[in-house]
Structure formats: C-alpha cells, structure tokens
Amino acid sequence: MNTPAHLIFGLAAFGKPDAPKIALAALAGSIIPDLSLYLMVGWHLAILGTDPQIVFRELYYSDAWMQVFAIDNSFILWGLAFGLALYTRRSWAIALTGAALLHLALDFPLHHDDGRPQFWPLTMWIYESPVSYWDNRNGGWWIGPLEALLSTALVAWIIIRFRALWIRATALVLLVMEWSASGIWRFIF
Predict the structure, then answer these.
(1) How would residue 184 be classed by pLDDT, with cut points 50, 70 and 90?
(2) Exposed/middle/buried for residue 141 (C-beta within 10 Å: 0-12, 13-18, 19+)
(3) What pTM was computed for the model?
C-alpha cells in the first residue's frame, strides 16, 4: 500500500477521538515500517545524488537494505511488542504496535516482486504475492483505485468521529497524498 493509506488505515483503526497521544501513536506506528525506506532513499537521492534507477532497481533489493527492512517489517518483532503493549495495558503502545502490525498485514498480500522479509529473525523469506498495489501487470489497475476509495471512506469516517481540527486536517492531507500517489503510479507504470 501507499504510505498515506497506511497512515489513514492506522489512524482509523487505532486512533481514539479524545486522546491525541493515542492518535499520534497510531500515526507513528503506521509509518515506522516504511521509515527506513524513506531515510535510505532520501539519503541516496538528496544527499549522495545516486541515480534513482540504481536506488530503486539495485539498492532496494540489496542484501543490506533487505536486512534493514527485515527488522522494521518483522511480524515477529512487532508481534512481541504488541504482546508487551497488551500486557502492560499502555494504550499508546497498543495503538503504535497495532498500527505497525496492520501496516505489515496490509503490505503482505499487496507486494508482487517488491516485498520485504517479514518473518525475521526466523527467516529472510519474502512472500511474492500474485497481486500488487501499484503494478498494473499484477492487479495494480484495480488494487490502487480500491485502496484510494477505501482511504476516502475511512477519512470521511475519521472526520465524523474525530473533533480535533488537526486530526481532520491531517486526514485530509493524507487523502490528497494518497490520491496523488495512486494517480502517479497509474501514469508511470
């Protein structure tokens, strides 16, 4: 899924209307599994000036990058953290780890040939889904629009459910980003 959709889904599932810290934790948990990707890509593109083709066709699939992705995309690690959050009954930790697990669960079936190892430290195996959220050759032509429509419905629900203006505004900005990202992938691929 596109990262803005992850943030929308995580906020809708784990945010609480009258608890800004829990909403922030849900947003943080929704982005943490993609954070290393943004940092490494940003470093290479903006700081080192690495050619985007090298970043997205070579470095992304390299053993070094996959090792980083294996850690922040591990169902095992996030599952243990979620269990600890439930045990300690810390609402913010439940929202953070639950949103991260939701991120992983939504990514798992939607990455055809660009998935990540999600069962580290047990294995570096990568599931190759028959469908992709972005690649039209593998269903992106219908998954992408479905993702955007579900995101739209969830943002409407967030706006109804949450009174805080900053949460409503954040959700709307994320929706614009989601629709833009979905549209961009349609034209590029």
Answers:
(1) low
(2) middle
(3) 0.93
